[in-house]
Amino acid sequence: MSSYFRKNYVLLITLSVIAALFVAAAQGMEKKDFVITLLRGLSVGSLTFLVASGFSLIFGLLDVLNLAHGTLFMIGAYIGWTVFVRPDTFVDLLTPLALILSGFALGDVYPLLATRIRLGLSVKRILPWALVLVSILIFGFILPRYPISIWDVENYGQSPVTYSFMADQGTRLLAPVAAFTEISAPLALIGLLLASIIGAFGLSLFNSVTQQQFKLNWKNYAGFAILLLVALLTFIFNESLTASLTGLSSNWLFVIAVLVATLSGAGLGALIESTLIRPLYIRPIYQLMLTLGMSAIGIEIVRAIWGRPEFVMPKPVFFNGSGGVCPATNFADWWANNCSTILLLDGRVRVYNEIFIPIVGLVVLISIWMLLQRTRLGMVIRAGVQDREMVEALGINVRRVFTMVFALGVGLAALGGILAAPSMGLSNAMGESLFLNALIALAIGGLTNYPGAALGSVLVGLIQQFIIKYGQIGIAIPFTDIIFKPTPPLVPASTVLLMVIILLILPNGLLGKKE
Amino acid sequence: MTQQINSRLSAFFSTHRAALFTLLVLILLPFIVGLMDGESPMMVFANESGNSKFAQGLAIEIFILALYALSFDLIFGITGMLSFGHSMFFGVGAYLTGIAIKTFGLSLPATLGLVFIAAIVQAILFGLVLPRVKGITFALVTLGLGSVFHIVVMSSELGPYTGADVGLQGVIVPAFISPANERLRFYFIALTILILVYLIYKRFVDSPTGRVCVAIRENEGRARMLGYNTFYFKLAALTLSSLTAALAGFMHTLYQPIVSPNIAGMGFTVTALLIILIGGVGTLSGALVGAVVYRLLDFGLRRYIGESASFISGAVYVLFVLFIPFGIVGTWKMKSLQIKQGWQRIQKLFG
């Protein structure tokens, strides 16, 4: 016991100083202010944690500092918004997306096909490029002509801002249904399918063909068949699907939006890892630069599709009730009326922002913890964080685990994005500020330490919110009459300063292991 | 004796042919652009507005960027320390110059002295962090220091001094180097400073101290094993880098009518990273080439594409990382033999 104290006295002293500061901060304000500030801090902390945990998993296992994580958080928010506010666009997008992916689902078939075809050396060298070019040309011909009912960034009446505003008012505005006018439907569908297969075949030819023989069974075709089925079904039942989605209560639509955003985030993560990051494992510093470039590109893509103005995503009905007995004074009242606010110890608390988000954060914290501690995948991840080469030597396919962890991390960030959208609103800059928070939280907590990420995130959230609150009420400096009011710029500065101080005292963060 | 000198001179000229040619082009550039536009050299000397004056302005911006990128290459490319707070080095120089001249009315040499002292002080400040944190954590701590500086500059309390988010403006530049009326003089001064700094950097990298810096980049533990106290070498590199960046910031304030707070932000550090990535990390001359390519690309894209230019620069960035990781100069150094052979083959093909 005493040896534990001797080893960790710096950590313990730091933690007790932070706790003392926290108690001092609590003394200075009224009870209701304290409750609200505490809950707000936990809310910001939960969002930060969703970004930080994925980032730290990726950094721990892959040694990739994914600087595009904030941008991916933002992309998750925008995708979720699309599903929630414009289900018709989402349904329209399903068919072409499934068709484009279907060709790539046949991945294992192509090498076998390539060994069957005997070609001259010069043809073999040109063939992949030619196939990819043909596929790009077909895509370039069909995709701009494919009808998708989408918003118009240039036209204010049909911009995302307007759609969002109307959805918030309760009348969900829908754009006119897009019809096949510039291109016939069968031609578009078959063309997309063909282009996808040709492109995937071309890309697979770039890899040197291995001579190993393997047999194909139905599993190799299952993904392809499912995607094709999805494409056909969504194409045939497009209108009825749209109608049923728009008719759905906004609670269920929100659940669908969260699922779609998280899954597409995970898919995007897997795609990025397997195409862009995998060639660069031998040059770690270049991965960092690559992700930096990707984050710039991602922001520009979001600006091009959804426009620059900020807009707010409406909350689901479950958290948006008003009138009657609202604000509710106890949870039974709240459950009966779905009030948007609730009175806790005389403080008005917004249910979605300050209660729902921390609960989701806690659920994610526990489930990822279970995943890491109780499953085989978690065991591989923990072992990989400690010693990657050793895990590889034991015959585990680390590469597949890498892709899964990257997908998991980006999926968590996207989940954070869609959860943050109704409370923070959507803007091009929402990723950056939260990403800086997450970085600071990780540096405070320990870069590759999972509980450290949670502790750091909560600390960052609490400190920011307490300083914002003290900016309103002011701090009475003892023995003088001066009331010091921290200004808004001090909010980020304070957490950064905390990070620098903690890193100078404990170079590996609060809970990081010594190297 | 004279023969020996002659042979040495000719050897010097033949080995530095490309560099001397570039220097000549840069000296003649204002006049060549002027002649192409129909202005006589006398009109160029009189600083009449025209294409020549515009080209000089663009070139001065490139020189300043090149100085800044050189300073980043020294700590990232040569010594191997990834600092995300490098824009702070530039920003301190730029803002201190503006405040010293505008608010305190100091003379130019006094300002320059003040800027140099501040540069050394902040290098020591970064140096205090050095022995404790390494690698990624160093990047995070410098990112933190840099963003605190950015926030301080942007805060409204210091508005009267720094201009907050509008930017620092209204700095009265002494008439003899005013960029509006005496731009040609400014051009040659900037060119001279760039060449001098580049030569000093070359000398530094080739000196024993610079060699140890390269050894630290390759393997710090081994350098320490050989008996070098790596801390002092890192501090030397940081100080030189900080001085150069502050000098670039000093020139930036003198040249630009407004010092935008963006130069203190994270984006400007990324600019330096992008420049040396385009030119070639750790090559020094890559920083110069990269600055030219970057500024011209940026200028062209903003002119013809407009707002979404940063999409293209992001794409260029990713493509460079994936396909040309050693940059223009680095790839040229590696492949120059093959390129020369290919060129000879083409020459043979056409007779």
Can I get a quick summary?
The complex is a heterodimer of chains A (515) and B (351). Helix content of chain A is 71%, strand content 2%.
What does this structure look like?
In chain A, helix 3 (31-62) crosses helix 19 and helix 19 (430-445) packs parallel to helix 21 (490-505). Chain A has helices at residues 2-7, 9-27, 31-62, 69-85, 87-105, 109-116, 121-142, 160-169, 185-206, 218-236, 238-247, 250-277, 284-306, 331-337, 351-374, 376-386, 388-393, 398-424, 430-445, 450-473, 490-505, and strands at 341-344, 347-350, 475-476, 483-484. Chain A has one domain (6-108, 147-182, 216-325, 328-505). Chain A contains 21 helices and four strands. Chain A has a two-stranded antiparallel sheet with strand order 1-2. A two-stranded antiparallel ribbon of chain A has the order 3-4. The mean pLDDT of chain A is 82. Chain A is mostly helical and 515 residues long. Chain B has helices at residues 2-15, 17-36, 41-45, 51-78, 86-102, 108-129, 135-154, 159-162, 183-206, 208-218, 220-225, 230-255, 266-279, 285-304, 309-323, 327-349, and strands at residues 168-169, 258-259. Chain B has one domain (25-349): ABC transporter involved in vitamin B12 uptake, BtuC (Orthogonal Bundle). Chain B is built from 16 helices and two strands. Chain B is an all-alpha fold and 351 residues long. The radius of gyration of chain B is 22 Å and the shape is globular. Chain B has a two-stranded antiparallel ribbon with strand order 1-2. Classes of the chains: A mainly alpha (515), B mainly alpha (351). Chains A and B meet through helix 13, helix 19 and helix 21 of A and helix 7, helix 13 and helix 15 of B.
